[in-house]
Design brief:
Layout: E1 2-4, E2 10-12, H1 27-48, H2 54-61, H3 65-68, H4 70-82, H5 85-92, H6 95-115, H7 119-147, H8 153-179, H9 186-206, H10 220-248, H11 254-278, H12 294-310, H13 312-323, H14 329-344, H15 347-357, H16 360-379, H17 386-412, H18 420-450, H19 459-502
Antiparallel strand pairs: 1-2
Helix pairs in contact: 1-7, 1-8, 1-9, 4-7, 4-10, 4-18, 5-18, 6-7, 6-9, 7-8, 7-18, 8-14, 8-15, 8-17, 10-11, 10-18, 12-17, 12-18, 12-19, 13-14, 13-18, 14-17, 15-16, 15-17, 16-17, 16-19, 18-19
C-alpha cells in the first residue's frame, strides 16, 4: 500500500500481519519466472555476447564498425518491433503456447548462426533470435504483473530485472572467454541444450493461465507501421553517422544523407500513423489511452533514455578497451563484469526499496550515482586505464540496477490493471529501442572520431578511439541527466496530485 506524507513524499505501508498467508509467492509462479526468465536471459546473453567480438568480426567478414554493429542493432530492433505484439499475444493466446513459440524461435536462430558463414544470413538469424526474445521478455513481466501478490510486485519485478540484467553483465565476458579457446560460434552451440533442457521443461510444468483468452485481432497495418517507425529511426541515426564519417574522410555523403532523411521521415510518419490508427481501431495492437497521463509519459521518456546508456555501455567499454587501451577480448569482457554483474544483483534490492519507501527517493538517488560515474568517466576520458574504466562503470552499474526496474513499476502503478499488458508492451519496446538507438548512436560517434585515422591497430587509430570515448561519455552524461529531470518532474506532479486529493 502507498500513501503520502504532509510534505508530499511517498511512503510504503507494509501489509497487515493477517495478510501474510495470502501474500505468499506460489511455487509455480517462481517456476514460471525461472523458465521464461532463463529464456529471456539466453536471448539477451546472445545479444551482448557479440559486442566484444566486433573487432574479430570486422576482420572475418571484411566490414567496418558502422556495418558490424548491425549484428547487435538488428537484434535489438527485432526485439523492439516484436514487443508491441505482447499485449495482443497476451490477450489472444495462452501464456504457455506463447512461451513454446519463443523457445522454437530461439533454438532456430541459434542453429542458423552455428551453420552459416554468410554475414547476411547471420543477420537473418539475429532477427529470428530477436523475435523470440521479444516474446519472452514481456511474457515474464506479464506473469509477474498479473500473478504476483500485490505486496511482492516490487521485489519480483526486481527479480525479473535481475534475470535480464545479469545477461548483459556476463555476455561480453562469456564472449571473450569462449573465443579465447574456441570459435565464436561455439557460444550458440551451448545455447540450444540450455533452452531445451532447462527452460522448456520447467515452463511446460509451471506456467499457468490465470485469465481467459480473448478473440483479439491483429491489425497488420498497425504492425507494419511499428516496424517502419522503429526501423526508420534507427536507420536514420546510423546513416547520419555514416554521412558524417564519409564527409570527414573526404568521401561523397550525398546518398547517405538522402537515405537518412527519407528514413527519418518514414519513421516519424509511420509512428504518427500508428498512434492515429489505434484511436480508430476496435482492437488495436496496443491500447494507448492510458498514455494521456503526463506522469506516465515522463516515466516512459526516462525508460527510453536510460537503456541507451545502460545497454550501450556493453558496446562502448569492450570496444574502447580493445581499440584504445589495447586489451584482449577476454580482458575487455572482464572489465564489464564487476559493475554489470554485481550491479544486476542490486535490482531486487531496488525493488525492496520501492516496496518500502516508494519510488521517488530510491530512483532519483540511484540515478544520481549514475551521473556521478559518468562525470568521472568524462573527467578521466583522455587518461583512462582499464582499472579506472571498470571502477567507474561499477558505480554506474549499481545505480542503474537499483533504479531502472522501479521506473516501470512506478509508471504502471498509476495505470488501470486491464491496461498493464499494453503498458508493459510500450515500456519494453522503449527499452529495446533505446538500447538499439544507443548502440547505433555510440558506434556512430566512434566511427566519426575514427574516420581518416588510418588502419585499426595504429597509434593514430587508438588516439581517435580515445577521442570518440570522450565524446561518448559526454553524450551519455547528457542523456542520463535528461532522464533524471523527467523523473523528477513526474514525481513532483504525482506528489502535487496526491496532496490535492488529501485536501
Amino acid at each position: 500500500m502507498q500513501t503520502t506524507t504532509n510534505d508530499g513524499n511517498e511512503r510504503r505501508i507494509p501489509p497487515a500481519a493477517n495478510d501474510v498467508d495470502s501474500e505468499r509467492i506460489p511455487g509455480k509462479l517462481i517456476g514460471s519466472i525461472v523458465a521464461v526468465g532463463s529464456l529471456a536471459f539466453i536471448g539477451i546473453l546472445t545479444e551482448t555476447v557479440m559486442t566484444v567480438l566486433f573487432p574479430q568480426l570486422m576482420d572475418e567478414f571484411g566490414v567496418d564498425m558502422a556495418t558490424v554493429q548491425w549484428i547487435t542493432t538488428i537484434y535489438l530492433l527485432s526485439v523492439g518491433v516484436t514487443m508491441p505484439l505482447s499485449s495482443y499475444l497476451n490477450r489472444r493466446f495462452t501464456m504457455k503456447s506463447t512461451f513454446v513459440a519463443a523457445v522454437a524461435l530461439a533454438v532456430a536462430g541459434s542453429a542458423i548462426v552455428v551453420f552459416t558463414s554468410n554475414f547476411a544470413v547471420i543477420l537473418l538469424a539475429r532477427v529470428i533470435q530477436g523475435v523470440g526474445s521479444g516474446i519472452a521478455t514481456p511474457l515474464m513481466m506479464n506473469i509477474i504483473l498479473q500473478q504476483s501478490p500485490r505486496s511482492k510486485v516490487g521485489r519480483l519485478m526486481g527479480v525479473g530485472s535481475l534475470v535480464i540484467t545479469v545477461a548483459p553483465a556476463i555476455g561480453p565476458t562469456v564472449g571473450g572467454a569462449v573465443t579465447s579457446v574456441l570459435p565464436w560460434r561455439s557460444i550458440f552451440v551451448f545455447v540450444i541444450p540450455v533452452v531445451l533442457i532447462v527452460s522448456l521443461p520447467i515452463g511446460l510444468v509451471c506456467i499457468q493461465q490465470k485469465r481467459d483468452v480473448e478473440e483479439a485481432k491483429l491489425n497488420p497495418l498497425q504492425f507494419v507501421a511499428i516496424v517502419l517507425g522503429l526501423a526508420g529511426l534507427i536507420l536514420a541515426i546510423n546513416q547520419t553517422g555514416v554521412a558524417i564519417s564519409d564527409a570527414v574522410a573526404g568521401n561523397s555523403a550525398v546518398l547517405t544523407v538522402v537515405v537518412a532523411a527519407v528514413a527519418f521521415v518514414v519513421g516519424i510518419g509511420a509512428l504518427l500513423f500508428f498512434g492515429w490508427s489505434t484511436k480508430r481501431s476496435y482492437s488495436p495492437i496496443i491500447r494507448l489511452g492510458w498514455m494521456r497521463d503526463p506522469v506516465v509519459l515522463f516515466h516512459l521518456a526516462a525508460y527510453l533514455l536510460m537503456p541507451m546508456v545502460g545497454i550501450g555501455f556493453g558496446y562502448v567499454i569492450t570496444n574502447l578497451a580493445q581499440l584504445s587501451l589495447g586489451t584482449s577480448a577476454l580482458i575487455a569482457g572482464l572489465l564489464v563484469l564487476p559493475g554489470a554483474l554485481i550491479g544486476a544483483f542490486f535490482a531486487p534490492v531496488g525493488g525492496m526499496f520501492y516496496d518500502r519507501y516508494g519510488a521517488t527517493r530510491p530512483i532519483l538517488s540511484a540515478f544520481t550515482a549514475c551521473i556521478v560515474a559518468l562525470v568521472l568517466m568524462l573527467g578521466f576520458s583522455m587518461h583512462m586505464t582499464p582499472v579506472l574504466l571498470a571502477g567507474f562503470y561499477f558505480i554506474f552499474g549499481v545505480g542503474y540496477a537499483l533504479g531502472y526496474s522501479n521506473i516501470l513499476t512506478s509508471a504502471l502503478n498509476g495505470v488501470a490493471p486491464e491496461f498493464s499488458p499494453d503498458g508493459n508492451a510500450v515500456f519494453n519496446t522503449s527499452l529495446q529501442f533505446g538500447g538499439a538507438a544507443g548502440t547505433t548512436l555510440f558506434s556512430t560517434v566512434f566511427a566519426i572520431a575514427q574516420a581518416g585515422a588510418g588502419a585499426q591497430g595504429t597509434p593514430a587509430f587508438a588516439h581517435a578511439t580515445t577521442i570518440g570515448g570522450c565524446w561518448t561519455f559526454a553524450l551519455m552524461l547528457c542523456i542520463v541527466v535528461a532522464a533524471w529531470c523527467f523523473l523528477f518532474a513526474a514525481f513532483r506532479m504525482r506528489a502535487h496530485r496526491m496532496l490535492r486529493t488529501l485536501r
